[in-house]
Write a structure and sequence with these properties.
The structure holds two protein chains of two kinds.
Chain A (H helix, E strand, L loop, with lengths): L14 H11 L7 E6 L5 E3 L3 H10 L6 E5 L16 H9 L23 E3 L9 E6 L9 E12 L2 E13 L4 H5 L7 E5 L2 E2 L5 H10 L3 E7 L14 H9 L6 H15 L4 E4 L5 E2 L8 H6 L40 H6 L6
Antiparallel strand pairs in A: 1-2, 1-3, 4-5, 5-10, 6-7, 7-8, 8-9, 8-10, 11-12
Chain B lengths: L10 H10 E10 L4 E7 L4 E6 L3 E5 L5 E5 L6 E6 L5 E6 L3 E10 L2 E11 L13 E6 L5 E6 L4 E5 L13 H5 L15 E6 L6 E6 L3 E6 L4 E7 L4 E6 L5 E6 L4 E5 L11 E3 L10 E7 L7 E6 L3 H4 L3 E7 L2 E7 L3 E7 L13 E6 L3 E5 L7 E2 L12 E7 L4 H14 L14 E2 L9 E6 L3 E6 L6 E7 L4 E2 L19 E3 L14 E6 L5 E6 L3 E8 L3 E3 L2 E6 L16 E2 L4 E3 L2 E11 L6 E5 L4 E5 L3 E6 L4 E7 L6 H5 L1 H31 L4 H21 L3 E4 L12 E9 L8 E8 L3 E8 L12 E9 L6 E7 L27 E6 L2 E6 L5 E6 H5 L3 E10 L7 E9 L3 E6 L5 E6 L6 H6 L1 E2 L4 E7 L2 E8 L8 E2 L17 H6 L2 H21 L1 H14 L1
Classes of the chains: A alpha+beta, B mainly beta.
Amino acid sequence: EFRRFSLERSKPGKFEEFYGLLQHVHKIPNVDVLVGYTDIHGDLLPINNDDNYHKAVSTANPLLRIFIQRKEDADYSAFGTDTMTRKKNVLSNVLRPDNHKKKPHIVISMPQDFRPVSSIIDVDILPETHRRVRLYKYGTDKPLGFYIRDGSSVRVTPHGLEKVPGIFISRLVPGGLAQSTGLLAVNDEVLEVNGIEVSGKSLDQVTDMMIANSRNLIITVRPANQRNNVVRNSRTSGSSGQSTESSLPSSTPNILGNLLQGEEESDEEDIIIEDSGEPRQIPKAAPSSESVESLSQIELLHESTQNGFLPSSEMNLNHSAGSISMEYEVPEPGRKSLEEDGTIITL
Amino acid sequence: MRRFLRPGHDPVRERLKRDLFQFNKTVEHGFPHQPSALGYSPFLRLMAIGTRSGAIKLYGAPGVEFMGLHEENNTVMQIHFIPDQCQLVTLLDDNSLHLWSLKQHGGASELLEEHRFTLKGPPGSPPSATQVTAVLPHSSREVLYLGTESGNIFVVELPSFRVLEDRTITPEAVLQRIPEDNCNRRSCELVEALREHPRNPDQILIGYSRGLIVLWDLQNNKATHHFLGSQQLENLYWQRDGSKFISCHYDGSYTQWPVSSDNRQPEPLENTVPYGPFPCKAISKIYWQTTKNGLPYIIFQGGMPRASYGDRHSISVIHGSQQTAFDFTSRVIDFFIIFSSDPAAEFDDPSALVVLAEEELVVIDLKSAGWPAVHPPYLASLHCSAITCSHHVSNIPLKLWERIISAGSKQNIHYSSMPWPIDGGTNIAPDPPQRDLLLTGHEDGTVRFWDASGVCLHLLYKLSTVRVFLTDADPNDNMNTLGEDEWPPLRKVGTFDPYSDDPRLGIQKIYLCKYSGYLAVAGTAGQVLVMELNDEDAEHVVDHAEADLLQDQEGYRWKGHEKLKTRDGPVRFEAGFQPFVLVQCQPPAVVTSLALHSEWKLVAFGTSHGFGLFDHQQKRLVFVKCTLHPSDQLALEGPLSRVKSLKKSLRQSFRRIRRSRVSSRKRRGGSGNASEVQEANAKFDQDALQEMELAPVQRKIEARSAEDSFTGFVRTLYFADTFLRDSSRHCPSLWAGTNGGTIYAFCLRVPPAERRMDEPVRAEQAKEIQLMHRAPVVGILVLDGRSTPLPEPLEVAHDLSKSPDMQGSHQLLVVSEEQFKVFTLPKVSSKLKLKLTALEGCRVRKVTVANFGSCKTDDYSENDLAVLTNLGDIQIISLPFLKLQIRYPCIRKEDVSGIASCVFTKYGQGFYLISPSEFERFSLSTKWLVEPRCIVDVPEVTSNNHVHKSGTENAARKSSPGDCGEDERKSGRLMEHALLNDEKVLKEIQSTLEGGR
């Protein structure tokens, strides 16, 4: 099943809106789908965030060919280099699902389907002497597994060296998340917890802050062992030497950007059970959802799914930027574009 | 991102905030903690109390109070008012003297410290040389006499505290005129008492610790009389006419001495040991008060027979054949007598005895037969039984107020009807804006109702729940049962009684509906009582129901305390709140939350095991819900098992230490000798000690889990009429929040009023929300369509609140210790949140909705959340947008009991305990501010104190210029009067004036 409509190239909008538009155009408002497109090399690549959506729109020449696929039936192997040349295999897989005996592939799809892992983040904006570590508890049964203590550290101030109270990691529990990631060590000084500086806060306060953020804990530390620091070419040794002793750069809003984004996307939603039903996550109260409605008011033909596949569609982005009118075409099934492009699902 | 930007740079809002919010600690209610000194000014009719922490508090007529704090925070040892002045001098235990003044400023008086001074001896002299033991402010108001340990009496000028060295009274000078066979240098050590002659200001009586008493002539600098006491001296007191004085002694005796011009070394008139003949304790202070009928009052502290009654804190009053030893509940700090302050009056005619005991103030009416106690309007001992909880109700309807007062007045019949005798100063504070009640629950099972409208926290009524239960100690009042021939004639006075018969009686939660007069009270042993106000005594059976909160859980055993036994059959209740139903939680764990809905006639209660709903109209349990996590053994077993396990773990760790010690010995045993082993042991001990010292305080960082202990602990219960299931129909609902971050919502079906007794109340669980951060839920609130919190039950029915907006969509506000969250209703989706702990590292301890009115315009007010955090800060957070408005530091974060005791009022005030016996009152509002505002005027002296002391005219002239004129005017008028009447008087005055020069 095909759909054709136009988008404004210069203002492609957000991926969410595009996704909503697709769902709307196909009258499948509550069906999770995978979105892919063919790039200039003929590879089938996924569209699942603003970046690759914009990339897709900008590379469309002149048509952007989009493939959508019901998520639970998706064949993730379809994506990747040379996917289009492998189309035969793909097609045969699609057509003969019973032959489909490939081992399951690792899922690469929507961001919410990723399992985030603990990592060092914000390397590019932090002084080399600092390390920002995200401990991702989600999905693991491991305890965070570390302890903090009071201590004192030496800072360079206008009045010379000064001893100031600080918070330090005092112990790592074997097998805990902190220890198993290898990103934190005993005697690392804790500088920030999820973007909030800890200086001036008591041990108990910092404890409470860490526990409050325990689902997605981002700790900025000054590692006790400074030999494993990431060395960046862009920085001169002189400046890094200075930053060793100084506290975090004052341009915190910039630094916080990444943190907050991380926090926002990973923020756990509370769970509700209604009338003793199944537990589900509490959604965010949507501020508005009219954007999709306003984008298109098109009557759509709709065909029933066959073989458990969602009818997919092909969309052509009108090259002429600035055109608002929607050009839209419903191709007959079995049109030649099918053979040409060899989409994974269309019949 | 926006959340991290600094809130509020909107200038309009900033201005409005200034009109709405303002933080003040306004007044301290209750009884000062650890009082250490007492003073009284008959001239100002003000009483002063000093404390061990260096505070000084002045009290007069109800509402007149002042407070000062010595910077040093040292114990106040003595307080002396300067005669006929608005000034007082305090002596601290660091031997410093402080001069305080009441000064008028901005229309009200203020207590200010003016000078401080420490007596310095000559270089090299021992500290005792200048250690002040006795202070006498002279009636001339210009000097202080300071008796010291060394026996020297220093004279310092006021208010400059300049030592007048030439006027020092040294022991040598005193001894000059005393025959040497009776006295030596040592007799003059330590000045115990200094007393000015009541009629002749040129004479002072000096009492030395070893018994020597000297009458000293200040004019001629010589001793005119000396009195040789055989016993160690404690104190002295002049008879009003100055012809006699009385001394009291360490051995429990007192002695009367005559003062006459012809005998320079008089013998005692009378020496008595009132509670002899067996050894008695010291009489530390004594008063001699004359009366018209000739029989004096002798009032003294102590003197009890040492062996049998040595532990009593007594003050005895002897008047003719009447004698009573008032037996106080705690140590007597000091006392004074209120008597005729008119210097011209011939007799003292004492009216009241004011006693400052360590834990309470007791005032005895000496005018009425039987010497009854006077009910104090302030300085109430809040802690007469330890406070276990408190509950504040604002804006009490007049009807309920009057009924509570009437119930209370029936309890206070044994008090004297005498008006409060300490009535100095004028209260100029505006009348309290509304009638407020503060209810305190106590360990002994009582609830006290305090009038918290104004500056004086005044007990209105006391409710006891004890009568419902059978306790070991029968409330067989043996107070005031005094046998005819009992000796000594002790009589218990005071209400301080910190010993609870049974800790299970303790009150944990209180909920009063001010419109219906329904009161729910819940206690330590899972008891929930619902009461109704009845103006008459009544005898009835209390209905009894059990709520088994563990319903489905099998095989658990409660190891905590048992439930209280109830009394069978009808129980007699006095007028006031009378219980009509008792719901007993099973297991009988402490009730942790309570809510009452007087319109639906429902009461909800929660413990660490679950919660239940009881219909007190039909007296039927509607439902119970177990919130316990099956693995939570700690909550199941009860509080006692925790202690046991602690003990066990202690024992284990000791065993471990011992074992390792033994093993280390064994290891070395083969090769070494005894000394080596010892050495090794010593080393081990040292290492262990070092390890303990070096091990830093560390905190475990771990996410909360569902398996944590006490997650089922029900923290909050809330009734709301809201849209729980669909947006078209609202219904009554009950909300419960637990320690583990779970919120349960039950949909209730309450039959309409006409079928209320016929149909059962039904409940059905509609929602369960699990907060993923799992922090304890401390508050639940529903906001109506206008984002206004739903009104209290019956509030709308009484036309005191706009009916809630049921058109717009309702919102649910959940406050956990870590976050504030707003959800939509009926479909729960998250709308807004404020992650307080993640941002600031503090946790919510108390939260309430408060209404703030603007001080500029009467027509603007808004609802905000008042929040107290575990750091002792108070934050105001706006509704419904959850924006931090302002933050004030209020309580020290170390003061855990202060933070735990805090209650907010509905209008932005609050109370918290600063000691077991004192509430600090604070205000967050610019509009609702209850603080003392009073004036102390120098009273118009109708007859001058000094008219008989004509010799002091010169002294009076030297006094400070301000009141000098006034003084001269007064004495001038008097002299004029005298002149007109008698020429001889004129001549006399003239001659003395000349003589003085």
